[in-house]
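G., the chain you wanted modeled:
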Amino acid sequence: MTREARRQVWLGAGCFALMLCAMLIALQALTELRAQHRQLARGQALADRALGLQQQLTAFALHPLDLPSGSTPEALKQSAAAIALDDPAIGAAERRRLDAAIDAVAAARGRLTATVPGGEVKMLMRLPLDEAGQALRELVRAQTEALQRQNDAAGEFSAFARHLLIGAALLTVVLGLLLAVLGWRSMRTNRQMMGELDQLAHEDGLTGVLNRRALDERLPVEIARAERVGHALSAVMIDIDHFKRFNDRRGHGAGDELLRGAAQAWRRQLRPTDLLARYGGEEFTLVLSACDADQALQLIERLRPLVPEHQTFSAGVATRLAQEDAAELLRRADAALLQAKRGGRNRSVVAGVEAQMALPLRIA
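Predicted structure as tokens:
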């Protein structure tokens, strides 16, 4: 794996980890928010219970002879016990004080009534509620403070989670941008590499022209185009005369320079639509679109003086016949080349036409 790919993997893993952490933080913040809502509901319930207990205490004190249903000391203690959170330690002292105040009020209740003639019970005085009311207020305050502390803690976590989520989002965006930049660079590098590989696969390394593989791929395309537009198509096989003898006398380096120089000089004389390929060794192939045999011969004569070292070449020309495929076209051009070489070299032969008069043969 390349370093660029490893960077992309690490950045992708970082983005995934940040997104996962952000999701967990968001879920925890949502849980805390729901807890806040529950605490608010519990605070409301505690307030309602405290108000109910206050009303019961008031009824207990103001109407000791005719108590409402449920206004008994036991019922009051149960109502006081209901004013509590999940933690029994919160407000425990206040609940005990309130229970003691309720017991004191209940004990004093029997001494505040008298029986008058006729059997009627008469209330002598009202029951004091100061201590019970104070104990109830302290109990409610203890529970409220506990709820407030919980709400404050939940609010602090929510604020922390919000800032953390913002930071994680920004960091994820930065990492995503870096990942996108690295991905773009990788794509560009891959395109360049693919272009270079494609060039290596279709270009002759010595001469810089097309190779045999590229010729095999593009010649059928040129044939199909010629059929579609109704133009002539000619193939020319070129062979450097006595190239082996040139190599033996001048060396393989000089032979390579000869092939390279000839190919580059020829390519500058061709149209953009023409193809020049190294067929193999010292053989080259020309594919000339919209070009008949006579035009191909004229082009060949312009190419002859461009060969370095005053070397000569033989050429075989074949103009495509109807329904002829690429292999058959090249076979006829190669047969014409063979005929030119057998006829004395340094000449051009058109397939199906008599060979030309031999030209002077020059060998370096």
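The first strand starts at residue 113 and ends at 116.

Shout if anything looks off.
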